[in-house]
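Format notes (please read before filing issues)

Several people have asked whether sequences and structure tokens are stored in separate files. They are not. Every record keeps both together, in the order shown below: the sequence lines, then the token lines. Line labels are part of the format and must not be stripped during preprocessing.
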Amino acid sequence: MRATVVLIGALLTASSAFAQQTGDRWEKYVAAFDEADKTAPPPKGEIVFVGSSTIQYWDTAHFFPDLKIINRGIAGTELSDALRYIERLVLRYEPRMVVVYAGDNDIGGGKISEQIAVDFERFVRAVQAKLPQTRILYIGIKPSPLRWLQVDRMRAANDIIRAICQRDDRLAFLDFDNLMLGWDEKPRRDLYLEDGLHLTPLGYQLWTAVVRPYLIP
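Then the structure lines:
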């Protein structure tokens, strides 16, 4: 555990530098949210969903019609991207809760488990520095048919992030790993689209049912 903590500390600076180098790729998508907010400013003090395509494709208005959710998912992004744009994707809405799903693309892009944990910890620090009462729900990296060979690295990242969340009552970790596996302990095909990565409507129904209790004030 001590070695892991040392490694996380050593990666903090590298994470920031990498984000600076790669962040501009997503500027046009964030700018589109900027423009949408000018036309119809979202309410403050509500819930923000942020992360990669699993968040973007989650029809939160349909699945959570009784809640005010601001969906700021961007397909293809990593956790470091959510951190880079945290002011525009999260902080300016002053949410009471932030739901984060990112990590899939990080693993697919070759990041080690500890690096993802570093990015999560930096994300948490950035939120708490400005919004100390805001709660953060991190949805653990899901197992998927497409990236099944990388599941051990995903689970390692989840274990570290879970430990981080257990140290702070404002943080929660939600693990879908076992819920998405079948009798053969492999990902259930009915929960995934043909690409083996993104969720089917049934997959989103499962996620919605499990996430909903965390969102109720």
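For reference, the curators noted about this record: The first strand starts at residue 47 and ends at 51. The two ends are 35 Å apart (CA to CA).
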